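dude i think i finally got it to work??
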Amino acid sequence: MSRSSRWLERGEKVIPGGVNSPVRAFKAVGGSPPFIARGEGIEIVDEDGHRYVDCICSWGALMLGHAPIEVVGAITKAAAQGSTFGAPTSAEVELAELIVQRVPSIEKVRLCSSGTESTMHAIRLARGATGRDVIVKFDGCYHGAHDAVLVGAGSGVATFGIPGSPGVPADTARNTLVVPYNDIEAIETLFAARGAEIACVIVEPVAGNMGCIPPREGFLETLRRVTSEHGSVLIFDEVMCGLRVARGGAQERYGVTPDLTCLGKIVGGGLPMAAFGGKAELMDHLSPVGPVYQAGTLSGNPVAVAAARATLEALTPELYEELEQISAEVGRGIAEAVAYHGCSMHRVGSMFTIFFRKDAPWSFEEVRECDFDAFGRFFRGALAGGVYLPPSQYEAAFLSARLSERDVQTIITGIEAALVAASVG
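look at this
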């Protein structure tokens, strides 16, 4: 038995499923998950010494790879001065200024500890500011593990075929309306019928939790128009795509400015950190300025803030140009094999997904038509070839800006071989 298998067996005795997030258990792809011992640049090394080029990057968080020296140095310095204070610091003000400079929609920002927190707080803020209860989300979009958005969710909820979740009260779910992603007519019809009730629309402007699916032309623009017309708040959940698909996020890439933006993953530099922000007049509804309560003991944690600042400072315009070139090279390198094996692909910047479906999907309903057994064979083949991809058809892969030419070729040849393994399995 491998060391990873022994750790899973040991973990199952004290942790549900042996893992602290369901998709990590590999139930959707078969086999046993490698337990990771360390990360080195763009590689991860498991407990048995196997090395993998990391195309998950902690679900998108690690633009700079593992243990980048500038981030490790900032963390070490901050930790030596105290791990948490529960009090304001100058560093969190400086981080807030960096975020405001970077993201087009954000005039004021609040820090919190996870992407789930950021979307939860943003929805509460939208409800408090509008005095309305109803929210709109899109089928297959995942916005964290809080009750209001565990309806029609993608990601791990979809991976395990759970339509919502036990424990979510029916009265809570009743206030969440679900519309197909990229369906302009459906959102216009919904607002025509119930616009006066809707507090907010929350959307992944580039979906990453049903695989990487870009917005169709006009989709985000329609959301901006109908929410403005009906006095609703438009929330972009950029926890995955924020600071990744462009320096200012998807809103910069597509030229559509939301009222509120949720950030996570990259904004924390690999540590638990998230943020939400937007127009000053909207953010000033938050306590202590306004009546909408939001708080967190570890919000603005000084060690996480140090990692975040070091990361944002390293994410220069030149780095984004390099990352786009790397990502385009990977895309070109695997395109022929993807098509030859009857699959399809979407890529937006350094996010991509290979779908086991001839035509690239544009909605969650179309993603459900993929060949999930073939994807499992593909995943296992890629892992055996040293390429670590997301263990679910419903998840996007992510690339690091610090991939070398050799790493790029390893990814391309590994994926090509895995596609063969999937087709003959």
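The first strand starts at residue 36 and ends at 40.
im so relieved honestly
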